[in-house]
Amino acid sequence: MSIPDLPNNHALAALFITVLALYLFRREDTPLETSSLAVITILCLLFALFPFYVDGNHFEPSSLFFGFGHEALITVCSLMIIGHGIVSTGALEPIGRYLAKLWKISPSLSLLLTLILGGGLSAFINNTPVVVLLLPILINVSLRTQTDSSPMLLPMGLATLVGGMTTTIGTSTNLLVVSIAKNMGAVEFGLFDFIQPALIASAVAVFYLWLIAPKLLPNRTPSMPDTSPRLFSAYLNINEESDVNDKTIAEIIKLTDGQLKIECIQRGPDYRNIIPLPDTVLVTGDRLKVHDYPDRLKEFETVLGATLFSGLHKVDEEHPLKADKQTLAEIVIIAGSGIEGQTLQQANFIRKYAISVIALHRAGKAMETGRNSIGNTRLKIGDVLLVQGETEQIDLLKAKQGMLIIDGAESLPQTSKAPVALGTLLAVVVSSALGILPIEISSVCGVLILLLTKCLNWEEAASALSTQVILIVAASLALGSAMMTTGGAEYIAQVFVALSYGLPPGGILSALMLLLAILTNIVSNNAAAVIGTPIAISVASQLNLSPEPFILAVLFGANLSYATPMAYKTNLLVMNAGGYQFSDFMRVGIPLILLMWITLSLLLNWLYL
Question: Per UniProt, which keywords does this protein have (predicted)?
């Protein structure tokens, strides 16, 4: 079968913009929101400056904005708000508490149950809060039993991705695929319409993640191997022989290259506190209260010619530095944290919450940045702040809505509103599953219930929304519309069928799923799915077959984002918490992709062709 002739110029332009979009979505130096807006703008300019007619009718460029009001986007946003309500009310707390107890009885059985629970919860709510719920439990188990956490964390993270593909609301990718299929008149999927192949494949994946994946993972050192404090409070006593007598605070800070941070100065026989202003002059007997790393404190002692005290005693082997009631924690930057897109200084974060920021982890690694510049680094979703503070302060942060804290303890906040939030989610799912209300309407009703019952306020609901998700969904829908209208999707389908000539329909379906599986680990899974769905429908049309299995091949393929830490945001969280390397995801993820691809290909052939 020969390769078809090139399509019209608008189709070629749409295909070029699609390739450009996939390139932009992969660039780390350009925000995904900017890339998405650029794609929409370029598409609109193309059809505004060079009009396109379909069967004599003018294609309106403004129709490319319909994605902002699309039912899929409305559903995605509503479910993000409901998921935020589930987390902020502590509705998942009982699950975490009982699961932590079970780990003390049978670790092997507990890992299996953790995988099943993680996947089951992710079928109905965003998997990010599920991962953050389970991470502290598994880290705490690892610390308490002195065992390696690497065989637990990565399998758990991947299990939540597996569970997300089982329902139409499990991921935004699923919602986009089924919405586009419905808009194009191909097929309308209910909430559980593809649960049979998804559940069978999920069972295969869970057993792989339980029995095989842990054996493939080497021992790794987690980013937070224990919760022992790393910063210590101490006093620098200014002696008579000290070189900094009669020098100003500004002068001694300059001697330490700007590293010295003085909390207060204690002066006189009653050690009254005075503010360390830049022009304050030091005198013999002053005590400078500082808070820093042990090696840096010793360096300050040498540079200033001072004596380092911890409490009432000079620091020595018998009287080491003290950290009082301080502990370590990790703060995950997610949509709704309130500080994404800002620097710590802009958010006044350190002073507001009375904690110290020790390190910033991005893409699983500590950023190469000095301590002074962490506060000036613009934070991204998926970043993890390693912080230290008093135990009570960390507990307050846990209870604060919108903050996701990992500190190696399984305690979670819970409020009296938790049953209302859980009941709301159940009502949304049941009403959609029984066909009483479409999911886009039931989910909006769910948001209204959470607001009326004060499980959330409008500020919290707004913080749960992600401009990144909104714009990538809108841009993907615009791309899909442009490809279908111009015939670009049909041309790609013709090329795909020509290249797979000689294969049976099941082979073409399997090849399409594998193509999407590769694409989703390289670019945005939403973009891959929305581009793939029109192609799947065109392929089915040319083969004179039902489009349903081919659409499902795209949906499942776009969810197989297991092989790289960048393929999905929760992969980055797990990578950081477990101290994993890029190769660990490939070592576990590639066999899982192949296993799921083969299983789902056989199931779709058996059930639909």
Answer: Membrane, Repeat, Transmembrane, Transmembrane helix, Transport
Give the DSSP letter of residue 322. B
CB count in 10 Å sphere of residue 587? 17
- Cα–Cα dist 121/209, whole Å: 17
Tell me the two tokens of residue 555.
């949906």
Euclidean distance between the first and final Cα of the chain, in Å?
23
The string of DSSP codes covering 539-593 is HHHHTTS-SHHHHHHHHHHHT---SSGGGSHHHHHHHHHHT--HHHHHHHHHHHH
The bridge status of strand 326-332 relative to strand 384-390 is antiparallel
**Computed from CA positions of residues 18, 19, 22, 28, in that sequence, does the dihedral angle turn out positive or negative?**
negative
**Domain annotation for the chain: domains and CATH numbers:** 74-225+415-467 (no CATH), 232-292 (3.30.70.1450), 335-401 (3.30.70.1450)
Give the amino acid at 607. L
Report the half-sphere exposure of 599 (CA within 13 A, side-chain side): 21
Range with the lowest mean pLDDT among 120-129, 141-150, 447-456, 518-527?
Answer: 141-150
In 217-370, which ranges are continuous DSSP H helix?
A: 249-255, 294-304, 349-353
Cα 350 versus chain centre, distance = 23
